[in-house]
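Record passed on underneath.
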Amino acid sequence: MQARIRRGSIALLIPLALLAGQQPAGAATAGDPMTGAFARAAATYEVPRDLLVSLAYAETHLDGHDGEPSASGGYGVMHLVASRTLDRAATITKQPVSTLKSDDAANITGGAAVLRAYADELGLDATARKDAAKWYEAIAKYGNASSADVARLYADTVYDLMTKGIKATTPAGETVTVPARAVEPDRGPYARAKDLDNPNTMAANTDYPSAAWVPAHSSNYAVSSRPTSDKIDRIVIHVAQGSYAGTISWFQNGPRANPTSAHYVVRSSDGAVTQTVREKNRAFHAGNYNRRSVGIEHEGYVDNATWFTDTMYRSSAALTRNIADRYGIPKDRTHIVGHNQVPGATHTDPGSNWNWTKYMQYVTGGGGGTPTNPHTAQSVCGSGFKVINSAALGTAGNVYLLYNSANGNNCVATIKKTNLGKATATSAYLEVKGKPRATDSGNFAYYAGPVKAAAADKCVKWGGKIGSSAHDSEFEHCS
């Protein structure tokens, strides 16, 4: 279905705007060029403005990278991908591809146009288009994920950002904001996809206990039997030049002329880790070092330091420390290297914005202060949940009870403080009065949970355990 406003009616809208002394959608203003571009593009194509900004921030942190492509061929603030969203944006907006690649305002307009086209194909009418929650399937389609599970991960990231709110500074120094507001997305068919942020999707036999498992395409790595066949004595640090979900999806695509993968991908916002290639197999990530190394990709771009959060550093360092301990790799800069240090490498990642001093302090445990858990109860339970009670489990950690007023659900998560990165006995449970108890129990590196249940106007018991330290509540929080 064609967008009903994007062709003939747009031709009428623009002259009317000019008569009123305004600029057409996509035109920049001197004071707030990007803020204005988002507002105009959202109005022209009837896309919720905050959703449009959240998608752009998830993809690029509002950095167009001077028209240079991402690793997966995406351009500009909206990450318009060649032979897909870029070409469709050019067809709809009548803008040259070169302009869409390099001009922020045109790129934003192009992204909004493509989203509107997807919404029309999904049958969203004028009323539905006003509701950000109804755009979930269009957002998932925009990411062009390789599977429904990764598409859900992609779309959930966008909605989580909108829920938390955004205050971002563009490369030009402009501040763009999205006010925090709870949105319960209508996932449609994606409600049946795996939630890759849920510990229940973690494979029991991942090499790193707290990693989710999303396998790369078989053409993007070589089956091997390391360390029997080849000694593992290096860990290579990469920056993906793309988003977390986009990188995972890129590794799932194949075959292609330049097959690529890494063993792990780490997310910027909360340090979440996904394993895509078993350590015994050779990922195609570092040329001459493929046989001898484990590769870790990090969400983000080398020229934008905002991606390299303390949470990402700590989580990645815990992963690196775990790998080094298992293979007897010395924790030094000779054995833990950047992609740019690999002999024969043409890549520059992780780049000058990567803080090697901080990272190595976290890896070795020296000079970095007390290690902290990169996960919080809120990040484990997800969008809309707020802590309403907690209890200490000795010095080992805390168990938290959370509530989501938008859907009436409770959630329990047990967050470790000690033995971080090491799989130790940890559990969380939630019992709604009159219903069976739900429990998440096992050997976990950072947390147990989330355990969720509908509990509006119901009394609940909740608790958790780390090692021998436990908390068990009475029935409480009945309203």
Q: What stands out?
A: Residues 233 and 328 are 8 Å apart (CA to CA). The radius of gyration is 23 Å. The chain has 13 helices and 20 strands.
